[in-house]
Amino acid sequence: MTHVCLADLERAVRDVLPGEIWDFLAGGSGTEASLAANRSALDRVFVVPRMLRDLAGSTTEADLLGRPAAVPVVVAPVAYQRMFHPEGELAAARAAGEAGVPYVIPTLSSVALEEVAAVGGRSWFQLYWLKDEKRSLELVRRAEDAGCEAIVFTVDVPWMGRRLRDMRNGFALPESVTAANFDAGTAAHRRAEGVSAVADHTAREFAPATWESVAAVREHTDLPVVLKGILAVEDARRAVEVGADGIVVSNHGGRQLDGAVPGVEVLAEIADAVSGGCEILLDGGIRCGGDVLKAVALGASGVLVGRPVMWGLASAGQDGARQVLDLLAAELRDAMGLAGCDSVSAARGLATKVLRYG
């Protein structure tokens, strides 16, 4: 079946994946208020299109961390991608390479980071802070040695949020899926009623990151360092002060603090506060090319997209993930042209209006 939008694909994949794996991918924390708000907040943003512009030579190309990308999109880190397809991260990374966009290798990858980086394309590495600082910095070194272009330090997970779907399901990883980047033992595979084994595993392995952790990473690598999970203006300013090359404005897809503000709600304020001091990306709820246009108009260099790429991966492996990225690119070209923008830089000049209902 041909999917003309990502919502079509989402519905189809929901009927194919086992229920508890779908819940692991789709769910949020608590009441899932932040998860829902990510979409509703984007739906309230409207751009003011410009007319009678010369659109000859239009392009969706953008610079992300100083290197060109075919579209201002990055494949977000999603844990344990072999749950969705046997090739997991390898297939998703190949798709991103074909589409000309960066792929963020997760700390909780089900394929070793060196293998994923070796498929080609642009790889960034996502870092969770572990209880053993030496192990954390060893992951940074391995990523650098493997040819990754950036470290995306996720700073909003001192521990995993209460993801009630996983708890109700007593969710545990399939035996065939492991955390391939480090010896994580068997905690993530042990089922217990009312307990997420993945949350239990991360509680054993993760430690709350601090600004000192950021400094340690910054001192340990010459790669660009991007802090993922920033929502407060004060934290954005401090990120610039400590030498971060970028920030991802994100509430972790609604999977951490339930009630955390959607990133798009604070994006413009953060962009104004940072004032070019570092690159800004938006994460959370992106479901079409028009959303990418909105993010750029509000001050982002680009966006991260996670769940939709996993829908594509689950539906048809590498080809399915590539189709998702191609669809986003086609939708962005259409949205930019209809808004009178021949380039991503022109889209940054669009005015926006936020409609408040009720």
UniProtKB/TrEMBL annotation:
Record domain FMN hydroxy acid dehydrogenase: where: 1-357
Binding positions for FMN per the UniProt entry: P77, V78, A79, Q126, T154, K228, S250, D283, G284, G285, I286, R287, G306, R307
GO MF annotation list: FMN binding; oxidoreductase activity, acting on CH-OH group of donors
UniProt superkingdom: Bacteria
Keyword Transcription regulation in record: no
Cofactor entry: FMN
Pfam families (alphabetical): FMN_dh
SUPFAM superfamilies to which the protein is assigned, alphabetical: FMN-linked oxidoreductases
Keyword Nucleotide-binding: no
Keyword terms: Flavoprotein, FMN, Oxidoreductase
Residue positions binding glyoxylate: Y128, R163, H252, R255
Database matches in InterPro entries: Aldolase_TIM (IPR013785), Alpha-hydoxy_acid_DH_FMN (IPR012133), FMN-dep_DH (IPR000262), FMN_HAD (IPR037396), FMN_hydac_DH_AS (IPR008259)
Active site: H252
Family: Belongs to the FMN-dependent alpha-hydroxy acid dehydrogenase family.
PANTHER family listed in its UniProt record: 2-HYDROXYACID OXIDASE 1 (PTHR10578:SF107), S -2-HYDROXY-ACID OXIDASE-RELATED (PTHR10578)
Name of the protein in question: Alpha-hydroxy-acid oxidizing protein
